[in-house]
Task: structure prediction
Amino acid sequence: MDRYEQVTELARRRGYMWPAFELYGGAAGFYDYGPLGARLKRRIEDTWRSFFVVREGFSEIDCPTIGVEEIFKASGHLSGFSDPLTECKECKEIYRADHLIKHIIEVPDALSDQEIYRVIQDNDVGCPECGGRLSEVYEFNLMFRTAIGPGNKYPGYLRPETAQGMFINFQRLLRYHRDALPFGAVQIGRSYRNEISPRQGVIRLREFTQAEAEVFIDPRDKTHPRFCEVEELILTLYSRQGQEMGQTERMTIGEAVDKGIIAHQMLAYYVARTYQFLRAAGVAEDRLRFRQHKADEMAHYAADCWDAEVLLDRLGWIEVVGVADRTDYDLRSHMAQSQANLKVFVNYKQPERRRVVRIKPDMKALGPRFKGQAKAVAQALQAMDPADLKESGESVTVHVDGQKLFIEANLIAVEEVEEEVRGEEIVPHVIEPSFGIDRIIYSVLEHAYREEMVDEESRIVLGLLPGIAPVDVAVLPLMDREELTGPACQIVDEFRRMGMIVDYDTSGSIGRRYRRNDEVGTPFCVTVDYETLEEGTVTIRDRDSMKQIRVGVQALGETISALIGKRMTLDEASAALSQGS
Result:
């Protein structure tokens, strides 16, 4: 049994996660989170919020998971959100074609359908199920289509990402942030992709949770005011040049920007914060790297993009976060589709005197002719580019209130004037850190899993960090007797009043209960025994070291809080208690 199977088996048995719809035979690409898994998920999400909502001050919104068709026309998902598909000609099994050649091509995403099929043919890649011949490769759109209302007249789609909610609410978000850049918006929620062949547990799902931030910035200044907080942070980087040589580099974030490896401070800052979040969630340092997208795999609109990748025992390096400079692509796309103005007026530090070319409509002629529409006609003319006006010939076409109006060229003058310019309208650029929560949860579980021998017996430990583990502390009476269970229940009530998640267990021997809590990741166990009745003390046992200390019941809540909140060791807690006494 490899590590993937060990973790998956533990997750099912102990209530972390299991395949959905098992009562009816199940369906690939869907998973349920059990009692422990749901708690772990919430704690990782709340840790993410502590980084991006609390510390960065970003605004969290919550948008519908169904979107109207126009959104996905603008975003490009209708025309370009697809994966390469191939089908076995013998058993008719369907596969995602690029996944079949990952052992041949390191990054097959950049290949066209024809190139993927050529690699399949040249390397005699057959059906993994029966060895049969594979069909030519073609594209399969991954969005789930639905209908809004009766009659199938109003098409909609389950969102394939949470990001579009921030883009289409940009005007309201801008007003909320008092029309000032930079600002960030975040959303945590479900997304849906009709994956071709989801065969990797929670790594590839058809319904999954994303946490995304969209940071709207002034494109003329991509420095970050708090870059000094992260510039000394050392990360493992797998740059484009490093990928050509097949080697990673360890360097500070500051060095990466200075050398031009990461495009600019703003992007590097969020790469650094992503690293800090993943470590706080429990991803192992030695199994985490940041890989830069190669030129031929990066989206045409992106200035730079880095994936946080984690190393998994069976699956190798997989992406769990993408951090990209998406430039102004998204807002410009939605402006073109919706005809809304998504620009921001930014003030100069000092006003500037400039000679500018202006369009001057003849209002004496336009007023009587267009009456109540005259002002709107004049504004439409003034919004035109003077260069376009010169090429328009004898008349100019404008659209006002849904009408097409023709204005004679002799009613419009073009003049050059000197004026004071206080600022300009810009389309913000977007920095997007996008997190796959389900992948992160599995990575944390696998990185936390270990098996060790203790007194010639195997001990399975899930070394989840305190504060991330779904159970904070277990309270265990030494025996299931009323004189011990009474004080133990009082301790449970006190912990719960303090806001802790507590497990109370009287089933089996104390050794068996310790092992059970080690396996589910409970960091601390409190044992109530007969010394508790005689001396008012209990035993605190540490999951990782198996060390134990005795603590007075009066100091118990404060001690456990310090162990969890301050990530103290038992030795540190014991020393603090000694000093306090």
